[in-house]
Write a structure and sequence with these properties.
Layout: H1 2-20, H2 25-28, H3 37-50, E1 54-61, E2 67-73, E3 85-91, H4 98-111, E4 123-128, H5 133-138, H6 159-171, E5 175-182, H7 187-192, E6 194-196, E7 200-203, H8 212-232, E8 237-239, E9 251-252, H9 263-266, E10 271-278, H10 288-308, H11 310-326, E11 332-340, E12 346-352, E13 358-363, E14 366-367, E15 369-377, E16 381-385, H12 389-397, E17 411-426, E18 429-440, E19 450-454, H13 460-467, E20 494-498
Parallel strand pairs: 3-4, 3-5, 5-10, 7-8, 9-14
Antiparallel strand pairs: 1-2, 2-4, 6-12, 7-10, 11-15, 12-13, 16-19, 16-20, 17-18, 17-20
Helix pairs in contact: 4-10, 8-10
């Protein structure tokens, strides 16, 4: 009798668990079509209703009014337990990179399973599965304003990137991952006879102003763990290496610019990563199941490492952010850099168009290190003219600390004079390179004319990179702010420095 009762209890439990399982739309569609915005919305709502771990927040809307959802997983009130590590993943900034979104939805489904609940003993995790719903519906890279969202994180002109940064600032996540796809099918690679062939690639931060301890942990421990986690589950993987083809152009480790989803958060001394799965040819859904499961596996591997190293990660980020806030004026901040060789060669896995097989090619022009060309001494802060409305709005979008300025003993004000505007090669793009002369400002500073932005805040290094006229990552490199640079005139943003 007891055995029959036991069987009935087990069957009842199994039926209840099975009935609560929800399949992601891609699975429901038998991997024959990608998930639409309507399907994504319905899936998230259903998942939220049936999981005690999940609460969904609408963080904003796209250009065309579609919701941007953040799925927040926690065993307590999200963000309130200071002992937990706050982790944020976001996907599909580019609408034609579908597997990031699909992998994120598969991950959300997997995280509601009982076997993964343990992760949230140490982690408060949020995932935004679709940053660009307008682009996704059209299967096009850009958003509804024809803007590349992953080049918009410094100037923040788009509602989607503004929503992401408001959400990040609300919780100050300590770990982040920006999920994309890469296309290996370029004409140059076809002529070369090979193409990149990793299912999933992973990259860390490269800007030299980011904490060295954070970059070391990322490159020496986290990337190897996640890449092995992928390989052990039969997904080919490699470190993210744009550039090439070999011997035609150099290979590097992504950009060090702060206008993308990885570096714009990394510059705040966040453990920040980019994951790129391989796209289908011509943005198709070719092999979409394998691609999406690869993306999901990489994200899950990252969560598992972070869970196991929670205290180490939390300590490093806390120390790095404290350094940003307490750093004294005068330290050097890199504003122009270049990718350089070290003599090291890279063996990169490729697919051969000749043999129709996987192959390996040795890259001689491999540039794994970012070296500073030009730096500046960190000022105490900057004075921006109130009449420069676009600068004032920019500071507001980034939620910067802004103060009234009062001249004090031991301070002086510097200005730049723009002698001429030359050019510089920045990652194979020719951009402006102003020739400037720094002089002491001798005019009067009226509080009614200027806003003061101190640099002893979390976004201090971002502020410097944005406001220095010679910064190759600065606002003046964007057309919206080009008018700030006028040959033969002074730069309107002033530096406040200690004597």
């Amino acid at each position: 009798m007891k055995s029959v009762l036991t069987i009935l209890i087990i069957l009842t439990w199994a039926i209840r668990v099975f009935s609560q399982q929800i399949s992601a739309p891609l699975v429901k569609n038998n991997y024959l079509k990608v998930t639409s915005y309507e399907e994504l919305t319905a899936f998230i709502k259903e998942l939220d209703e049936k999981s005690d771990l999940l609460k969904t927040e609408t963080i904003g809307q796209s250009v065309k009014g579609r919701n941007l959802y953040a799925l927040k997983f926690s065993t307590s009130e999200f963000g309130k337990d200071k002992s937990k590590l706050k982790v944020l993943f976001f996907a599909q900034q580019h609408g034609n990179e579908q597997s990031g979104k699909e992998g994120a939805l598969l991950l959300a489904q997997a995280l509601t399973s009982p076997e993964n609940k343990y992760l949230f003993d140490k982690i408060d995790f949020a995932i935004i599965p679709q940053m660009n719903p307008d682009g996704s519906e059209a299967n096009k890279r850009r958003n509804g304003n024809s803007m590349d969202l992953n080049r918009n994180h410094l100037i923040l002109t788009e509602p989607e990137t503004m929503a992401l940064h408001r959400f990040f600032d609300k919780y100050l996540f300590e770990v982040s991952m920006d999920v994309h796809e890469y296309s290996p099918y370029g004409e140059d690679w076809e002529k070369y006879g090979y193409r990149k062939n990793a299912d999933v690639t992973l990259g860390a931060t490269t800007n030299p102003n980011i904490s060295e301890a954070i970059r070391n942990l990322s490159n020496n421990e986290i990337l190897p763990f996640v890449l092995k986690y992928l390989a052990d589950r039969k997904f080919s993987s490699f470190e993210y290496c744009p550039g090439g083809p070999p011997e035609i152009d150099y290979i590097r480790h992504s950009t060090f610019d702060v206008n993308d989803g990885r570096q714009s958060l990394g510059i705040l001394n966040t453990l920040s990563f980019i994951q790129e799965g391989m796209n289908g040819k011509d943005d198709s859904i070719e092999n979409i199941r394998h691609r999406s499961e690869g993306q999901m596996t990489g994200m899950l591997g990252m969560l598992k490492f972070i869970y196991s190293h929670k205290d180490q990660a939390k300590k490093l980020v806390a120390e790095g952010r404290k350094e940003l806030i307490t750093a004294k004026p005068g330290e050097k901040i890199s504003i122009q850099s270049e990718h350089v060789r070290t003599g090291q060669k890279l063996s990169i896995p490729l697919y051969s168009y000749f043999s129709k097989k996987d192959s390996t090619v040795v890259v001689n022009d491999y540039r794994p290190v970012v070296k500073t060309i030009t730096d500046v001494q960190k000022p105490a802060g900057y004075l921006i003219p109130k009449q420069a409305k676009n600068l004032v709005e920019w500071a507001g979008k980034h939620a910067l600390v802004i103060q009234d300025f009062k001249m004090q003993k031991g301070l002086k004000i510097e200005q730049y004079f723009i002698r001429r505007i030359d050019s510089i090669d920045f990652e194979r793009e020719i951009i402006i390179n102003p020739v400037v002369e720094g002089t002491e400002f001798s005019g009067n500073i009226l509080p009614s004319d200027y806003l003061y932005i101190p640099t002893d805040q979390l976004k201090g290094n971002l502020i410097i990179l944005a406001l220095e006229p010679k910064s190759e990552l600065g606002l003046v490199t964007y057309k919206e702010y080009a008018q700030l640079l006028r040959i033969g005139e002074t730069f309107p943003v002033l530096r406040v420095v200690k004597k």
